[in-house]
């Protein structure tokens, strides 16, 4: 064990020590100012939000390298503690050719599994699960969990794109198969999703502090958007992954406490067996059509919903392929279970009122007060902050690599005329891209928060956004069976098919816009009657989800049909060239790049052009 002087000497060598001390002093000053304002109860809630946020900022890791900021690779917390306490060598200090040491800096199963789990336990999802529980009981929770089939769907797509086709990101595959316009349309869909996540998750947290659009409500909303933006600007993907591990544990702990408190409040009545009294409108007590909710969410969750969320798809390209597949499937199972269990809040809300549809977590927490209110708020804060930090991380990657990859920036070593989306391991990615990513985070935080003035319904955020992007599914699934040239320029593979993407994506967008217009809430002017009638004509099943289900079935069939016709057109009419493959694929177990037969020469050129220096400055990452 090192002496205090040795530990102090190592701390002094850290470039982060001075600004972390300054940051700590600033946060303490802010906390002292908070003590002088607010009523007792409100002040308590604010202290909870402020203290939790301050802890995340102070413990966030700083990323100054491309791999750390965009991929999350870097020195782990345990290794850092060992270094300061004992002087043990950090992974980056040893030879970059040492497999044993190198593994310690990669994203492992546990880190990826917990990160995937907690980042998809959105504050809006927890809110919606409780609302669904208040309408359909436990079946409502199962229905909302249907969207969590996105985990295995994204994991399967990522696995095959990496091991069979060698792609390093989903946008890279879209651009290769469908062209730059398709990749632009895909990027727009991702932007929409990320923007949607900012306002919908901050709104849920703000509801705990005051009424909609009051001064306190706006303060809480802006604060809950600013905090994750701050520590992700600092550390990128590395800060997001490390914070997710702790937040996942806290989220599970808080849920267990809430379930215990709910069980205590309900006495001998089981939360999973209780039913509200029947009424003329609801003879069974619950809303009708719960089974149709499950079917509708499963359709979106497996076919299209996962591919418009870069928070999830980015993680399907982390770690080794087989590790990633296991981590995302396990994380999805835990996340879905979490959502089902949280529907108990909605059921308990109905139990208190002895009537259906009283499941809003904010309303239930406010009615209960005390410990229950604090724990429900803690779950919401944990889920909101973990979701938003991953949202901002994905935004940084989307803007700086996948959009600005089309521009020649200083340090770009690609051949003249070669443009397109970059991946974090490309030699052309520099610290300038990190700066662009940080600016993009700040812009998204501002733009996403401003929309709160127009919309605050978190339930519609899931249903509408999922419907608008139903056209992404067909071209993504088609990419898994794509046939590429047997060697560069052989012209024996499938031709690039821009229409296959556009004839799926654009109709899906139209279906989504029409659904939004036809189901617009009365508080915002009500639905457009003509469109509402068209939606009614496609209704399937019963209950409030009959339109949503019918419209999605018709829409998904139309998108698959459009994708097939566009693909067939390009294969029969030679307007585009056949697609070359990636020169290497990824080994499922080790993650090492394997040369594709017929592409040996291209692989050698790629290695010489894109070799990265794995030996980086150790102290800059601490």
From TrEMBL:
InterPro entries: Na/Glc_symporter_sf, Na/solute_symporter, Sodium:Solute_Symporter
Transmembrane parts of this sequence: 17-36, 48-70, 107-126, 138-160, 217-239, 245-262, 325-348, 360-380, 432-452, 464-485, 497-517, 548-569
Entries under Gene3D superfamilies matching the protein: Sodium/glucose cotransporter
Main subcellular location of this protein, as a coarse class: membrane
UniProt xrefs under PROSITE patterns: NA_SOLUT_SYMP_3
GO CC terms of this entry: plasma membrane
Localization, UniProt: Cell membrane
Keywords annotated in UniProt: Cell membrane, Ion transport, Membrane, Sodium, Sodium transport, Symport, Transmembrane, Transmembrane helix, Transport
UniProt-recorded Gene Ontology molecular function terms: symporter activity
A biological process term (GO) from this entry: sodium ion transport
Topology of this chain in the membrane: Multi-pass membrane protein
Family the UniProt entry places it in: Belongs to the sodium:solute symporter (SSF) (TC 2.A.21) family.
This protein's name: Uncharacterized protein
């Amino acid at each position: 064990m090192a002496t205090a002087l040795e530990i102090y000497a190592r701390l002094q060598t850290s470039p982060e020590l001075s600004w972390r001390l300054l940051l700590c002093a600033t946060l303490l000053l802010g906390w002292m100012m908070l003590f002088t304002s607010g009523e007792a109860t409100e002040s308590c809630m604010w202290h909870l939000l402020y203290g939790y946020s301050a802890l995340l900022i102070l413990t966030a890791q700083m990323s100054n390298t491309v791999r750390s900021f965009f991929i999350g690779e870097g020195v782990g917390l345990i290794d850092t503690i060992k270094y300061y306490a004992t002087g043990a060598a950090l992974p980056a200090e040893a030879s970059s050719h040492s497999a044993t040491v190198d593994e310690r800096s990669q994203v492992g199963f546990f880190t990826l599994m917990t990160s995937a789990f907690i980042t998809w336990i959105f504050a809006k999802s927890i809110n919606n699960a409780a609302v669904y529980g208040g309408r359909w009981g436990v079946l409502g929770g199962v229905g909302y969990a249907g969207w969590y089939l996105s985990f295995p769907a994204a994991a399967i797509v990522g696995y095959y794109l990496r091991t069979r086709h060698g792609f390093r990101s989903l946008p890279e595959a879209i651009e290769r198969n469908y062209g730059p316009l398709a990749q632009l349309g895909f990027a727009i869909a991702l932007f929409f999703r990320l923007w949607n996540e900012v306002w919908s998750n901050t709104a849920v947290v703000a509801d705990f502090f005051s009424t909609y659009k009051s001064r306190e409500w706006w303060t809480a909303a802006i604060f809950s958007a600013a905090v994750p933006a701050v520590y992700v600007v600092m550390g990128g993907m590395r800060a997001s992954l490390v914070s997710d591990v702790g937040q996942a544990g806290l989220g599970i702990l808080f849920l267990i406490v809430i379930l215990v408190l709910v069980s205590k409040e309900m006495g001998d009545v089981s939360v999973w067996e209780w039913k509200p009294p029947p009424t003329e409108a609801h003879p069974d007590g619950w809303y009708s059509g719960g089974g149709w909710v499950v079917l509708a969410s499963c359709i979106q969750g497996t076919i299209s919903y996962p591919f418009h969320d870069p928070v999830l798809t980015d993680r399907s390209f982390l770690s080794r392929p087989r590790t990633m597949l296991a981590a995302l499937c396990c994380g999805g199972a835990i996340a879905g279970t979490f959502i089902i269990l949280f529907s108990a809040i909605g059921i308990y809300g109905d139990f208190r009122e002895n009537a259906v549809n009283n499941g809003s977590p904010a309303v239930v927490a406010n009615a209960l007060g005390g410990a229950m209110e604090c724990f429900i708020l803690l779950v919401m804060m944990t889920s909101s902050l973990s979701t938003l930090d991953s949202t901002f991380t994905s935004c940084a990657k989307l803007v700086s690599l996948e959009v600005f990859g089309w521009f020649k920036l200083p340090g770009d070593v690609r051949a003249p005329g070669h443009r397109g989306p970059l991946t974090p391991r490309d030699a052309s990615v520099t610290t300038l891209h990190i700066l662009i990513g940080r600016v993009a985070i700040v812009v998204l935080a501002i733009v996403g928060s401003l929309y709160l003035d127009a919309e605050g319904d978190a339930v519609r955020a899931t249903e509408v956004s999922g419907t608008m992007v139903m056209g992404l599914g067909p071209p993504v699934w088609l990419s898994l069976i794509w046939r590429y040239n047997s060697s560069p320029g052989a012209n024996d593979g499938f031709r690039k098919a821009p229409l296959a993407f556009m004839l799926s994506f654009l109709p899906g967008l139209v279906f989504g816009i029409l659904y939004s217009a036809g189901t617009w809430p009365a508080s915002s002017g009500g639905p457009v009657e003509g469109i509402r009638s068209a939606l009614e004509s496609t209704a399937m099943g019963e209950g409030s989800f009959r339109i949503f289900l019918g419209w999605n079935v018709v829409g998904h069939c139309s998108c698959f049909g459009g994708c097939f016709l566009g693909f067939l057109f390009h294969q029969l009419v030679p307007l585009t060239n056949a697609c070359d493959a990636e020169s290497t694929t990824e080994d499922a177990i080790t993650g090492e790049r394997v040369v594709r037969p017929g592409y040996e020469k291209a692989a050698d050129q790629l290695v010489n052009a894109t070799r990265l220096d794995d030996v980086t400055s150790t102290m800059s990452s601490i």
